[in-house]
Amino acid sequence: MRIHPIWNQYPHMQRDLNDVLRVIEKNIKIRDKKVEKNIKELIHAGGKLLRPAYTLLCSHIGPHYEREQAISVASALEVLHMATLIHDDIIDDADTRRGQETIQSKYGKNYAVYTGDYLFCVCFKILAQHSQSLAALEFNTKSMEKILAGELAQLNTRYHIDKTVRQYLSQVSGKTAQLFAVSCYSGAAISKASSSQQKTAWRIGHNMGMAFQIIDDVLDYSSSSEDFGKPVLNDV
User: Fold this and answer.
1) SS3 103
2) Mean pLDDT across the stretch 103-125?
């Protein structure tokens, strides 16, 4: 398993993230082997795995820590993230992702759409097996709806050069910050943290997600494709 070097100083996190990747790979079973192969290549392309890492960290907030459950929920959220990446590549018409050719570049947009949809199914499959309650599953479903609404907002504002800062931040909130927020919240929730602790975890994740996307957008204008690992200036 290939884990990003940012986790080299945290061996316990490395071990848990390795198990996250194993759970994801175990649940990727599709008849079309070339799509399966490309999904697995994306899994092991060396992404930072920030969202599952935040779920794992926040799963220690409350009094109830169950490693298997934390790994499973973290896996589901990383699969959801992967699905949004594939759909992002379609919108941006991106040729590379994490230094590798994208599915939409290799096989076309139709293949990429179905691959992203398949990953949404995998996400729900893992969540359904390990969700603490129907209420938790409902929360994650609503969060996914907000994430997809953010993706649609991005698509609908393409080529709008008069976008305000408020509109931009609202788009970032739905597109990126929501998934960071739900990652932190889910970890706290499965650890049976208090309601106020769960809300605090959500806010922490949301703020980190906002900062992350703003930095990502700045890098889109200031980096080279070689340094960034994906095409730059697509957001123009």
Assistant:
1) helix
2) 86
CA distance 166 to 157: 13
Strand segments, DSSP code E, in the chain are 96-97, 100-101
Q: pLDDT tens digit string along 6-26? A: 999 999 999 999 999 999 999
CA distance linking residue 183 with residue 204, whole number of Å? 10
Q: Distance between CA 89 and CA 95 in Å, rounded? A: 8
Within 13 Å, how many C-alpha atoms sit on residue 4's CB side?
11
SS3 (DSSP) at 98: coil
Label the pairing between strands 100-101 and 96-97.
antiparallel
For the chain, the average pLDDT equals 83
Q: Can you tell me the distance from the alpha carbon of 173 to that of 201, in angstroms, rounded to the nearest whole number? A: 16
C-alpha 194/C-alpha 61 separation (Å) is 9
Using the Cα atoms of residue 63, residue 68, residue 71 and residue 73 in order, give the sign of their dihedral.
Answer: negative
